[in-house]
């Protein structure tokens, strides 16, 4: 798939993997909508990436709200005419033992990680079907959609669901030239996942990755671009995890 002139929405686009993905799309000549609940961060990301003739805009979204996601897609179509690529990247995690997990925290993870994928796919696909020439959905899953981890009950549940949602959508819409894939990162360096934030636990995380380090946001972004560009890949979850799940 040639990305020049295509329009991509990236949820959770204000930071981390989302911001790196937005940048990678722009470098390929795409028009990008950075969608995030963090308005200040989203506007900063827009200004950071808006260089030269780059077509990029920030739109605030709450992916747990279908109305908000529908408005996001409508705003994208109003500005750029269509949606070609939808990256459902926004996510959240709540850690702790399950018998102490509140329903509110559990439901928060479900509503963002799982409902957000449903709403994003639903409304992007509606536009893609109207356009009649296909499109691509990319869902951000996780290694924890494949392997379990104590204390990550809700997160495990949502990312496992994302993997199967991806397969189901791919089968439903293949005949319409709409491809659906997921990327499953290992632990990725960020403000929350760093030596400074985690202390000694950081070294334990690194040790779980055979390559001997954590991932970088741009490495996940490159994998997302690959899944968008390769027109023979659909229904797949691509592990980008430094060998974590191969053990």
From TrEMBL:
Q: Please give the InterPro entries that the UniProt record associates with this protein.
A: NAD(P)-bd_dom_sf (IPR036291), Sc_DH/Rdtase_CS (IPR020904), SDR_fam (IPR002347)
Q: Does the keyword Oxidoreductase apply?
A: yes
Domain of life assignment: Bacteria
Gene3D superfamilies in UniProt: NAD(P)-binding Rossmann-like Domain
Which keywords annotate this record? Oxidoreductase
Q: What NCBIfam families does this protein's entry cite?
A: PRK07231.1
PANTHER family linked: DEHYDROGENASES, SHORT CHAIN (PTHR24321), ESTRADIOL 17-BETA-DEHYDROGENASE 8-RELATED (PTHR24321:SF8)
Similarity remark: Belongs to the short-chain dehydrogenases/reductases (SDR) family.
What's this protein's name? SDR family oxidoreductase
The organism of origin for this protein: Planococcus wigleyi
The record lists the lineage as:
Bacteria, Bacillati, Bacillota, Bacilli, Bacillales
């Amino acid at each position: 798939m040639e990305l020049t002139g295509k329009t991509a929405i990236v949820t959770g686009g204000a930071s981390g993997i989302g911001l790196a993905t937005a940048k990678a799309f722009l470098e390929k000549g795409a028009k990008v909508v950075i969608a995030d609940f963090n308005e200040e961060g989203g506007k900063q990301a827009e200004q950071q990436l808006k260089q030269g003739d780059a077509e990029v805009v920030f739109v605030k979204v709450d992916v747990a709200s279908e109305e908000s996601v529908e408005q996001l897609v409508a705003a994208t179509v109003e500005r750029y005419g269509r949606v070609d690529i939808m990256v459902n990247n926004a996510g959240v995690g709540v850690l702790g033992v399950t018998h102490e997990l509140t329903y509110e925290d559990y439901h928060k993870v479900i509503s963002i990680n799982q409902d957000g994928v449903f709403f994003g796919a639903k409304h992007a696909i509606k536009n893609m079907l109207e356009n009649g020439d296909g499109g691509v959905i990319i869902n951000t899953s996780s290694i924890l959609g494949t392997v379990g981890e104590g204390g990550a009950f809700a997160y495990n549940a949502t990312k496992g669901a994302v993997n199967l949602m991806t397969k189901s959508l791919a089968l439903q819409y293949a005949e319409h030239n709409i491809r659906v894939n997921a990327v499953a990162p290992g632990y990725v360096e960020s403000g929350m996942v760093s030596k400074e934030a985690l202390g000694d636990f950081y070294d334990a995380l690194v040790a779980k990755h055979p390559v001997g380090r954590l991932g970088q946001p741009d490495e996940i972004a490159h994998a997302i671009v690959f899944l968008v560009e390769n027109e023979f890949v659909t229904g797949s979850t691509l592990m980008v995890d430094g060998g974590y799940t191969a053990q």
